[in-house]
Amino acid sequence: MLQLRFSAGAFLALAGLAASQDCSTLPTTITYAGHPLKLPDPFTFLNGTPVKTLSDWSCRRAEISSLLQRYELGPLPAGTPTVAATLTSNRLAITITAGTRSITITPTIRLPSSGSAPFPAVIALGGSPSLPIPSSVAVISYNNEEIAATDPRGRGKFFDLYGTTTKTGGLLAWSWGVSRILDALELLGPSVTKIDTSRIGVTGCSRNGKGAMVAGAFDTRIALTLPQEGGTGAMGCWRIVGEMKRNGSKTEDAAQIVTGDQWFATEFEKYTDESGLAKLPFDHHLLAGMVAPRGLLVVENSGIEYLAPPSAVGCASAGRMVFEGLGAKGNMGFSQAAHGSSHCRLPAALEGDVRAFVDRFLLKGEAKEVWRVDSAVRVDVGRYVDWKVVKLG
């Protein structure tokens, strides 16, 4: 058993180049006169300044992160927690300390039975991945509900550490936990863990698909993000879902989602009707954009109306335009098929799409683009996008 300690803040990579340059902070008061249908322009700063370069984009990405925290997800904790890690057999013991309080989480690692270490790995929210992970890839089981309970609000180890009155929602707390697992893996090193931290993926389905999407957006150490059937709150855009609901669709919109599970900050409740959504200076195409240019494959089930399939298609299409602007259009994929009510059960027709992205981003395989949209799902993306791709350089 080996135990090491370090300051986790050194590894919390949220902004790339923005960490080494002067990016402006958000004003105390924001007045955003948006549109109930039009998705905000990724290539324009909140103050109207155009995004023209990669350096600009790193600051715009940091701005989007701050907007998501202020309006929807709640804040990441200030300061730098200290992480201590041990590995005994296949179990990590990660002790996180902030001030005078400490918590311990114990994810497990399942290593491949063959091949040579260090291995790529996928962190599975909920414990077990419902996507087919190749036998040559390690699986790290993560009990994210232990970090932040879906219900009631303020229960879980994250809140034991930071207090039950903290305004952070469950999704960002789960993402914070993923980052602490990455801290521990880097701390112990591949000679101990047998894990290659440059080849890490994250996945989850349904509510855990939402969590995987947020984790992949907020921690740039994640090479591949694989959200499955996350629906609204993952790849679904609030504005598109809102229009669908107004037109009679039996989908989950923002107004409904905030009345149940505690995934979002209470602040978000102010912005869930049509007029409120128009005031949001972001939507979830920008959450996808935060992942760029790293790997992102969105897996959706168009057979479940509740998941708002047209919203996923429209929102993903808009998010992919950020990847295109960064010269990495093929790094974002979309894989959608109708398979009825078999939620979180991947049909055989989509297995090759998942394998293509795992091969490319975790196993150093050949590049293959994936963009599979159910032909029965019809979306006019131009109805929601009134801006164009800017080639950043």
TrEMBL record:
Please tell me which top-level EC class this enzyme sits in.
hydrolase
List the SUPFAM superfamilies hit by this protein, alphabetically. Answer: alpha/beta-Hydrolases (SSF53474)
Ranges of residues in domain 4-O-methyl-glucuronoyl methylesterase-like: 94-327
Protein name, entry field: (4-O-methyl)-D-glucuronate--lignin esterase
GO-annotated biological processes? lignin catabolic process
Similarity comment text for this entry: Belongs to the carbohydrate esterase 15 (CE15) family.
Q: Where does the signal sequence lie?
A: 1-20
Keyword set, alphabetical order: Hydrolase, Lignin degradation, Serine esterase, Signal
Task: Check the record and name the InterPro entries matching this protein.
Answer: AB_hydrolase_fold (IPR029058), GCE-like_dom (IPR054579)
Q: What is its EC number?
A: 3.1.1.117
Q: Is Signal there in the keyword field?
A: yes
The terms under GO molecular function for this entry are: carboxylic ester hydrolase activity
Superkingdom, taxonomy of origin: Eukaryota
Enzymatic reactions: a 4-O-methyl-alpha-D-glucuronosyl ester derivative + H2O = 4-O-methyl-alpha-D-glucuronate derivative + an alcohol + H(+)
Q: Which organism is the protein's source? A: Podospora aff. communis PSN243
